[in-house]
Each structure stands twice: as C-alpha cells, then as structure tokens.
C-alpha cells in the first residue's frame, strides 16, 4: 500500500477513491484535500461515469486533522474561514455539482467534516459498525462541510439540533432508520455491494443521472411551481440524449439497453 493520502483507481467504468491515512482514521490534511480535489477532477476527465469513495483501515474520516492546526499563542488568533473557503467548501460544492453519481461507502466512523463529506455523496452506504458523529461541538466548533445544510433537511430540526449540540455518535442502523443514509450492510458486504452499485450506475444513462442530480439538488430550495418548471426543462434535455432513444428502442425491441452516457 502506498503512502499517498488518497488512492485512485478506475474499475468497471467508475473511479474508486480511497482516503488513505488510516493511522489517523483518514483525517483531512491540506495535502489530502489537494489530492482529493484533483481526483474529483480527474474522474470525469478520464471517462469515469460514477465515483465510489471509501476509507482505508477502520475509519471512514475523522474530519479535520487536529494535529495540523497550530495552537495560537497568547494574543494570536486562528482564522478558520481560510480552510473552509479554500478546502471544505469547494470540495462539497464540487461533489454536489459533479454530474456523476457518487456512492459513499462509509466503512467506519465519520466524524466532524468527515460526516459532512459522507453526506455530500448521492447514495450513502455504511458498514453496520460505522457511526456518524457531529464532533465539532466537542472541540468548540460548529458544524461545517455541509452538515448544517443536510441535517435539518434529512433528519428534521429536532434530531439535527440534538446531534449537533451533543456530539453523540449515531449508529449506522439509526442513520438509515432516520433517513440520513441509504443502506446499512454487514461489514464484509459493504465493499462488494458498493462496487456492484458503482459499476451498475456507471453503466446507466449517466447524462440523465447528472440531470437528475441537478433536479434533486434544486428541489431542496425550490417551491413546487419552480420545481415543476425545472422538471419540464430538464426533461427536455433528457429527451435529447442518445440514451433516451436507446432506452425506448431497447424496450420496444425487448432487449437490454446499452447506455453510453450521452
Ligand atoms: O480547522 C479547520 O479546518 C476547521 C474545520 C474543522 C472541521 C472538523 O472536522 S472539526 C472536527 C475534527 N474532528 C474531531 O474532532 C474528531 C476527533 N476524533 C475523535 O473524536 C475520535 O478519534 C473518534 C470518535 C473519531 C474515533 O474514536 P476512536 O476511539 O475510535 O479512535 P481514536 O483512538 O480516538 O483515534 C485513532 C487514532 O486516530 C488516534 O491516533 P493514535 O493515538 O493511535 O496515534 C487519534 O489521535 C487519531 N485521530 C482521530 N481523529 C483525528 C486523529 N488525528 C488527527 N485528527 C483527527 N481528527
């Protein structure tokens, strides 16, 4: 295994990205952010039609690497806006704007920004022994990496407040029961199922997947009338893809469609 903070491989039409700092439960460093950003650029440029993200070792991601921050001396302060502006916010925005399905395989604890990062995926699977922790409050910080956006929308304000204000771990089973993630799998089944899902998504009509993602992103902030208009315009675009023609043709010819993502 290499020492690179992020591993990248193309498999079965999708890019597999592995956070690779297992000794610190894959906590984020500046270097890791840079390679991760590059991986999310590289995947579509190299023709990947889906992305799978997981963590090496027993953790998924423990959020910001706390050993990377200098403890300010007397009279000094630290401006955390810089790290959010230059690292976390562009990462989360890139993931939500990327017109490809992103599967997150949460293999262990996802804490702090690691939890926000996990929730920024499109389909989140978790190992039964994984957990989700809004660890920020334990060190005097506030939710970031999108957590304050996703939590009230996904689990409602009551549970969002309790998670963020207590920093108590949420089990993978409860996360699925609360609608925070898609599915929990026995630990040994996580990666085989996540890979099968990523390969299946990569072979699906990925232009329509990108449009679906845009539509569902917008729906979180739109009123019904605006969303109906957006559905109309987005369906117009989907109706112009080769994959739509192939889908209808294959249905009529009673055969399996072969989608190209165009
Ligand atoms: O600064 C900015 O950019 C602002 C933005 C901040 C965003 C954030 O993410 S703030 C939140 C940062 N994360 C945390 O506060 C979580 C800290 N970690 C923990 O609370 C615990 O490690 C866990 C609950 C995640 C897991 O607990 P456990 O008992 O399973 O593992 P452990 O023994 O605590 O950790 C294992 C090793 O990973 C350990 O190293 P060692 O002793 O074996 O050498 C531990 O120090 C290291 N580790 C865990 N989390 C971090 C970390 N090292 C650096 N940074 C971490 N965040």
Description:
The chain is of the alpha/beta class and 262 residues long. The chain folds into two domains: 6-202, 2-enoyl-CoA Hydratase, Chain A, domain 1 (Alpha-Beta Complex), CATH 3.90.226.10; 206-253, Orthogonal Bundle (Lyase 2-enoyl-coa Hydratase, Chain  A, domain 2). The protein is 46% helix and 16% strand. The chain has ten helices and ten strands. The chain has helices spanning 30-45, 81-97, 113-119, 147-155, 157-166, 172-177, 187-202, 206-219, 224-238, 242-252; strands at residues 6-11, 14-19, 51-55, 59-61, 102-106, 109-111, 123-127, 131-133, 170-171, 183-185. It has a six-stranded mixed sheet, with helices on both faces. It has a four-stranded mixed sheet with strand order 4-6-8-9. β1 and β2 form a beta hairpin. α1 (30-45) packs parallel to α2, α4 packs across α5 and α8 (206-219) runs antiparallel to α9. The longest helix has 17 residues, at 81-97. It is globular and about 70 Å long. The model has no long low-confidence stretch (mean pLDDT 97). Ligand T3D binds next to β6.
